[in-house]
């Protein structure tokens, strides 16, 4: 199949091939097997056979149109690791057989001030998301990692540290960088008391990373079953956030709070934990607004902020940091045919701490069976 697209340089023909994927046709429909097109690698492209793909809560928000911006069909997945199968003739960083990874972005304008500073996620023209963004090559939407393979410009492909378990490395590509970037930005390190709120995929990575950066880490969870476990992850203390007395112990005590909660919650309860000049950064992206009381911010000159994933150079820095400190995600491996059930469990906070899809399951017979059931 050949797609034709008009570009600034004129009309360009792009070859594409059919690839198996798992996605959804509507906000209320389950994910099921479907076919998508992937472009044939252009000179700067790397073609990757996807071996593992993490399941981020953003996949669920997007598949169900909770952010009101989804174009269907939607193929989620932006925690991708795999093996390079072919490269374009100008590619210098990768060759066939190498391990490679792709995170939340596959392109950006590369010319604006933010792109030049390595902040491609904040590109003035908007970054090209790994899924649910306009595809500059094929004129369709971009499709994510719940698929057999992906073709990405080498500038947006990451190197995987050889010493880490490959499946458990996949979640670093979103959960890892999304927590690493704000922890670095707000100077988390020795002498700093840091709160992590919501111990899911992102939160558990934040605990491991903040500990490795040398901070004292306090976990805030709604799940009694995570209290002991959070200590195993490295937390110095764990607070059951529904217990007001436990919460009061840390009122006005923390330098920084990273909030990775995916649903409605009282943000004021966490702003009140900050010291004078402390900051709370939201990485969690609930569907509805979070009301903030003026007096949660004013008396302590507190800052309420947000942070989105991380740039490409910073993502590589994070992967290398994880390689050096032997940090990976705690994962539960699933087959792609279990994805709808996994979404339901994710909504209940019932995963320790990241589902990772073994993409080999997309190739086996069960995929066809699930489709026919
Ligand atoms: P996740 O694995 O589902 O974890 C979310 C955690 O939030 C849960 O484990 C739970 O932790 C807590 N939680 C859930 N419902 C709650 C409720 N009603 N009240 C209080 N706490 C609740 O999700 P994730 O993949 O880590 O993603 C977290 C959020 O970050 C999502 O909204 C996602 O879209 C967003 N995200 C943002 C970026 C970015 O660039 N900013 C990137 C990736 C993801 P406890 O059991 O410990 O309470
Ligand atoms: Zn994500
Ligand atoms: Zn840009």
UniProtKB/TrEMBL annotation:
Source superkingdom: Bacteria
Annotated source species: Ilyomonas limi
Protein name in the entry: NAD(P)-dependent alcohol dehydrogenase
Pfam assignment, any one: ADH_N
Entry similarity comment: Belongs to the zinc-containing alcohol dehydrogenase family.
Keywords: Metal-binding, Oxidoreductase, Zinc
Tagged with keyword Glycosyltransferase: no
Gene Ontology terms for molecular function: alcohol dehydrogenase (NADP+) activity; zinc ion binding
Cofactor(s), by name: Zn(2+)
Organism phylogeny: Bacteria, Pseudomonadati, Bacteroidota, Chitinophagia, Chitinophagales
Enoyl reductase (ER) domain residues: 23-357
